[in-house]
Amino acid sequence: MDLDVYVTAHRAEWERLDHLLRRGGKLSGAEADELVALYQRTATHLSLIQSSSPDPMLTARLTQLVARARATVTGTRRASWRDALHFLTAGFPAAVYRSRRWWIPTALLSTLVGVAIGWWIAANPEVQASIGAPADLREMTRPGGQYETYYSSHPAASFAAQVWTNNAQAAALCLVLGAFLCVPVLWILFLNMLNLGVGIGLMSSAGRLDTFLGLILPHGLLELTAVFVAAGTGLRLGWTVIDPGPMTRRAALAQQGRAAVGMAIGLALVLFVSGLIEGFVTPSGLPTWARIAIGIIAELAFLAYVYVLGGRAARAGETGDVDIADRSAELPTAA
Q: FRET partner for 6 with CA separation of 20 to 30 A, picked from 177, 226, 296, 330?
């Protein structure tokens, strides 16, 4: 493409668009329609120049012009309580529902790995010895030992806040690091399952597996589900790098990345509930069956939230992505 000829052919359109933008809100109906048409054509011109004859100064000028035009065409919008309500009742649950083919297998396989590690540790005294000295292990697993006192070692409110912060960071890492071809997410999952498996194995070898499950299940069901959802979303994001499907890799990553950011906010709220249960219910004097029942109710409530509200919203076309007006403009690639 001859850049000089192309600029000469379209300069008048760019100048006209700039003139209309400078007039702001003083446009007639016909002029507003003209502005939209010129914005679309200029975006196409910018795309072709970037791909065929990238000139830094011309590209910068047209990029600024297209950005101004887009801001004028789409306008600005402030987030409102209605947006927050829509996110909680449709956007977030729909995003979790739509990613279920990733996080459900992740949950099942991870749980199997954790149980397998626990069985391996419980069945092999030499493995237990590699974890710690016999006296230290007895101190950890005895009645009133470290496993039991861990949940009541700090005031409930501060402990819940600490747990929530740690779990939210782990979930965010799964979401963010998924773009690195899934490997960091798999490592974070393995570390979580390793910690779970060590607890299962050591407490089982001490004949106190029922006590361990009574401590871990009240908050662990919801907590691990949130981690599995984050990991599944991170893996999906990583797979998008490998196989973006019919979209360009940049567009596909942008779409999945926006959904992942929303997922991080929603999962932070889920983990906040889990942290409250871990801080106030797990170390409480309630009977074991009552504490486990609270954990099961919280887990079932979350699953119902995802499958009822999320499923309905997903079938209605909700993806968990932001509104079209809030997305970055995608330039056309044909004149």
A: 330
